Amino acid sequence: MADPTDFVPQHVRDLDVYQPGKPIEELERELGISGAVKVASNENPLGPSPKAVAALPAALAQLHLYPDAGGFALRRGIAAKHGLDLAQIALGNGSNDLLYQLVLATCEPTDEVLSHRCAFLSYRLAAQVAGRPFVAAPVTADLACDVDALIAAITPRTKLVVLGTPNNPTGSVITRGGMERVIAALPARALLVVDEAYCEYAAAWPEVDHADGLAALRADRRVVLLRTFSKIYGLAGLRIGFAAADPRVIEVLNRVGRTFHVSSLAQVGALAALDDDEHVQRSARHARAALERLSAEVAGPAVRVYPSLANFALVDCGRPSGPIYDRLLRRGVIVRPMAAWGLPNHIRVSVGREAEMPRVIATLVETLAG
Ligand SMILES: Cc1ncc(COP(=O)(O)O)c(C=O)c1O
Questions:
Q1: Which of 18, 44, 95, 167 to mutate to test the pocket of ligand 1 (most atoms within 8 A of CB)?
Q2: Are 150 and 186 within 8 A, CB to CB?
Q3: Suppose 162 and one of 70, 142, 181, 193 were both cysteines; which one would form an S-S bond, judging by CB atoms 3.0 to 4.6 Å apart?
């Protein structure tokens, strides 16, 4: 019998399939362990914004109504908080969703999406799903964005340059000067997408030079900012993020967005979380302290913890990380192996709760020494 999918386009056949991590309960059952710690998905270990949690129950009685498709109250809140215009904000079902929309809205079939070899995997996927070429520029010896190499990889076909700062999985940032140079090198018919999923964490490191996406957006109308409520606001399960850009870019982005794709609960939760400075600051302070401890204590001749301004750190184990990942797993510490990123010796460790960090660090130290 003929394959009922043999008409599927080649670029869809070639797509890498996202391998989701197993739920913690399933892993515990499989391994016969309990009390496992999951430090694998860069979630906020302090939990959701308490203000969001308090606001959600009142919205339940309205679940029979469609959400506000224009996301008016939340967009107005975001615009006010960041000194932007309402027309400069678009909402998405997570910030990833907005990147997919951007590719759809702006790229012709031969237009290139450019990032670098250690960038967040979704950038490549967003291009590939749309059948657009993805170009990965070389990185520095520290696996950070090499601004010169990135600029050298720009061609007349480059339509979107996508940079995460802090970047996932490296935790590295683009400097102010680095971002200015990328913007100066941008072709006239291209946009710079600055993915700031972890920028609130970076704010806890004021002494480290890192680019300010909002300032870049104010200075140049070709900058598109992506932000999310999944990370420091602790609302990953609600699926909500936003783009900030020139109103004309937002208008184009909205053309390809699906109606009602941002739920009413997501809008209510995000609006309440927006005001939760206490939760944001506590979470950022916690992440910095935990990362400082991790890099001070997880050491070894061949082991390297990369400096990170986010809520996770990349660790070079100095040898293939697969067996190390398995041993950590059996001891109840779930990290993310990095082979899919082309980093076979690396794992990514997210910041855990205060009470979990001593166990995470001790287990890592013992496993890496073994
Ligand atoms: C760099 C980066 N951008 C975007 C996202 C996705 O965020 P969202 O949950 O808003 O789609 C993540 C999530 O891991 C991320 O690490």
A1: 95
A2: no
A3: 193
Q: Which candidate, 343, 235, 352, 32, places its Cα nearest to that of 227?
A: 235
Give the model confidence (pLDDT) of 183-221 as tens digits: 999 999 999 999 999 999 999 999 999 999 999 999 999
Which of 168, 194, 198, 226 to mutate to test ligand 1, by most ligand atoms within 8 A of the CB atom? 168
Task: Report the separation in Å between the CA atom of 269 and the middle of ligand 1, taken as the mean of its atom positions.
Answer: 18
Is residue 168 within 6 Å of ligand 1 at its C-beta? Answer: yes
Residues 6+ apart with CB under 8 A from 276: 49, 50, 51, 52, 233
Rg (CA), the chain: 21
Residue-wise pLDDT for 312-355, tens only, equals: 999 999 999 999 999 999 999 999 999 989 999 999 999 999 99
Atom of ligand 1 nearest to the CA of 230: 9
Beta carbon of 197 within 6 Å of any ligand 1 atom: yes
Of the options 3.40.640.10, 2.40.50.100, 3.90.79.10, 3.90.1150.10, the CATH number for the domain spanning 50-275: 3.40.640.10
Determine the residue type at 239.
R
pLDDT of 22 strictly over 80:
no
CA 95–ligand 1 middle distance (angstroms): 6
The pTM of this model reads 0.97
CB 367 within 8 A of CB 327: yes
Q: Select from 2.40.10.120, 3.30.930.10, 3.90.1150.10, 3.40.50.11270 the CATH code of 18-42+278-369.
A: 3.90.1150.10
From the CA of 32, how far away is ligand 1's center (Å)? Answer: 31
pLDDT of 164 reads 98
